[in-house]
Amino acid sequence: MGLDGCGTVCVYVIVLFNIALAVAGSAFLALGLFLRFNVNTRVVFEIASLKSWVFVMDVKIIIVLGTFMLITALFGFIGSSSKKKWALETFSGLLSFLLFSAMALLGLTFWKSDAVAMNIMEFYISMYALYDGVDPVIGTTLRIIHNLLHCCGVTGIGLIETTCPKPSGFLEHFVMPNCPEKIAGFFDRKAPLIGVLFALVFLLSVPLVCSSIICKKIRVSVSTTQYTVMTNSALPTPQPLQQGFVPTSYSYPNPDIFPLVPVVEA
């Protein structure tokens, strides 16, 4: 099925979005599985005295989220490459669920910012406590958090911490903001949450609209094809001429040029 310029652009948008979604989903799933089955973190799930309900629940959410993102990207790839209407509709449904879930989560974060901040701080502190200075996955995760928030561990002292970002000023060579304080400050300010909400809604809405446009064009193309087939099948099939038969046509005189002469009976 051929698509016009708008449909082609929508296909490219969905493909690029699915690539980003698949990469993010793979990262979430790999991180969640690593935190669940790694030797350093598995004790949190197995030993009751060390078990952290927040850490366990967050790891499960990360695994489920990564799996859901990969499934959504899979249907998006199938629909955009093969132009299958059912795959695009499934992709739109999964993406809509992801969009509404994100909006609900961010709305809850906006109204219950203190509780969410405490939850994330507990998850961060659990990872920080489990880091032995060697584990590459936990170390990389901590570095990403530190660079995003520009914080330095629990103490804020770069000489002690090993995963701190580069200091941005002279004083930060000695002391930087610690991460629990940065996390609490981030959720105290509503403006970053609103910005994240609008950015997430925009990123998820664009491929959703593109998927709807492609489905509409597929529906119109199928309807046009069916109408053409039905029209062609309704036309009479010309019969072949019999051998030796010469068709003749008779032309009747125009009464305006050759008026009819009445016949008078004798």
Write the layout of secondary structure elements.
Blueprint: H1 5-37, H2 39-46, H3 53-82, H4 85-111, H5 113-130, H6 136-149, H7 179-188, H8 190-234
Helix pairs in contact: 1-2, 1-3, 1-8, 3-4, 4-5, 4-8, 5-7
What does this structure look like?
- The protein is mainly α and 266 residues long.
- It contains eight helices and no strands.
- The radius of gyration is 35 Å and the shape is elongated.
- The termini are far apart.
- The relative contact order is 0.11.
- The mean pLDDT is 79.
Summarize this, please?
With 266 residues, this protein is mostly helical.
- SS-based class: mainly alpha
Percentage of residues in DSSP E strands: under 5%
Amino-to-carboxy terminus distance: 77 Å
Helix content: 55-70%
Instruction: Give the overall form.
Output: elongated
N-to-C series of helices and strands: HHHHHHHH
Salient structural properties:
266 residues, mainly alpha, 0% strand, single chain
